[in-house]
Please model this.
Amino acid sequence: MTHTDIASPELAAVEVHGVTRASFILRGAMTAGAVYGAAAVGPYVGNALGASGSGDIDILNFALTLEYLETDFYKVKGKAVGLSGQARSLATMFGDEEGQHVDALTKAIKAAGGMPAKKPKFVFPVTDQASFLKLAYVLENTGVGAYNGAGPSLSNPQYLAAAGSIVQVEARHAASIGLLTNQSVTPNGGFDKPLTKAQVLAKAGPLIKG
Amino acid sequence: MTDTSTAAERPTEGVVKELARDDVERKKFLRMAGKTMGSGAAATALGAFIAACGSSSSSSSSSSSSATTSAASSSAATSSGSNNSSGDLAIVNYALTLEYLEAQFYDKVIKSGLFSGTNLSVIKTFGSEEHEHVTALHKVAMSLGTPAAKPKGKFPLKDAASVTKLAATVENLGAAAYLGQAGNIKSKEILAAALAIHTVEARHAATLNLLLKLSPTPDGAFAKPMSMAEVLKVVKPFIA
Model:
């Protein structure tokens, strides 16, 4: 794997033109440095700051909030519900991976001079394994749509590469939950649908309680 | 597996329409850029694919640009607009070639009679989604210049277990290949289409991994990209 693919100075110089910020409001993002290790952060943060639009930190924070939500869901709610079998092992693995997304986003926001969003309180209307998995399927598919909706608006290609790395994992989670619960692993067919911020909030907003 | 083909077509149609709405001058320019490329590698697009992949360059950004430089050697002198469109065409044709191979693979697996029941329906769904990707990418490539020629795939289809393994390899490769190009795509419309396809490849890969009792997230929390050169190494034996 050539991580230099993403962290290359040539790539950092690439500009994404004509961003229609209003059309893709949620933009999940982070620095490649945060993905590939703290050692790589330093040299690229400068580039990131130079290339980023002013809204990038806000977007990082929105993504962070979604990742907080997913992490809390798997780690706290999953434990409270008392999962068993493959549901338990997948939820443990996925919770750990969402937690890594939180850590990476937090580091990226700090490195870019921003203030990471605080973790909100969440309420999940889930009482047992079946309702837990049902919501897991919704949350993961929403995560995929949120990142895909954000991707084209990213002004910094380093963020785009990193967001791509995260969204692929969200998609893998979504399909896994689908397979486990006999739901479609590709609910959008051949092309995953990008979601707007409003669409994401319609799904995730009711779970956020301040 | 549910049939969602109607809904599925919308996003890419949107992308294609957006491409079509580009102002006429830009379209002409894109075509010209495509034709310039056509005299070299893009005329036989598999040639472009292999030329791009065969370069020893280790970074995906430079290997993708080598697809264009091998075709139009004077790229340094061309405007950035030309670089953008010809670079995107090379990436789209690279993706198209991979999707052709995936679609052919699933067609042959379905015909092989090795699968039945749930697994067969999974394979049929994935196969039809790969065909949708071929159709969409072909349209995008047409709008930019000359689409890649259809390669002829050859796949060892011995038994269900080894074929499932091969399918997982192919899908994980596909996901990594798209991820490897995300940062190189200049057009945000094409990027949107690539992202929409990328996560579907990831869904296929995770499903097949689970059917094989492997981790659905083999790279952990952060999926790893692959360069064109790395992808070709894996794909080459499957091109007849």
